[in-house]
Amino acid sequence: MKRDGWVRPAVGWLGVAATLGMFLVLVMGATVTTTGSAEGCGRDWPLCHGRFIPDFALATAIEFSHRAVTGVEGILILALTVAVLALFREQRPVWLLAPLMLGSLLLQAGMGAWAVKYPQQPVVLALHFGISLIALASVALTTVYIWRQGEMRSGSPLWGGLRLATWGVTAYLYLLVYSGAYIRHAGAAGACAGWPACPSGGSWTGVAVNLAHRGAALAALLLALALLIAYRRLEPDRRDLSTGACLLIGMLLLQGAAGAFLVLSRYSLSGELLHAALTGVVFTSAAFLCLAVSLAAPRGESALPPRRRPRLRAEGVPPSSPL
Fold it and tell me: Which residues are catalytic?
């Protein structure tokens, strides 16, 4: 069966469904945290109050629906993993992306179960959200690779410094997201009830932490702008990198606006969900740039002419001989 027939498009649409499902899992997880529904099923897992289908109160419905959607998403991810390994088993990016999306989903579910049965510290809860971002990004990148692997693998060679800069900005964004999640789970977000400045009267440590996070978010925007300038000046032919950087900048601006709305709305549910959703899109945009620069050959290597094998000379034949 040819891969360019109906099989690859079917796997591609499976990837789209899995990506949307993972995005829904991320948003529903934020709903559980914001509404305080993490104990909606008590300390039972995977059952809910000792039952497969419990009597529903609001908190129970939120927590149970989150688990149900995560279970369906697990089936989609497993099917997608098997499909891409079967179709593209000779391609190295798939051997990285497929285990990453399956492993991150399993780790995310395991940490969620651990948090339900044994209450965790804010640092662990923040890490749970960070793993959710990796799961979302890995599924989205797998889907993009299925649809556009030819274009992504045929990109022009790239200067090695840009590869390092791209990964550095992405790592910085991940730490920024982790710090924001930690502030939220530690209960320090309420110390700064204004935007962009904090009103007087709050705890000085809470105010300092919030202002530091906002400053770090501004620095992330400046780093993304610098990355775009570097792409356009050093690699003007790589329009995919410039477009991805523009998308990243746009999402960072929207996330900043969502952060302001979150504070000014007194940390409403809509503000929390909007901010969490945009965080997922921001990190996925940065991860796309990492994949694009990683697939490109280092500049200079591909331009070297292929080595010629030395021609064997018969014994006793002088070098000037045509042999």
Answer: 63
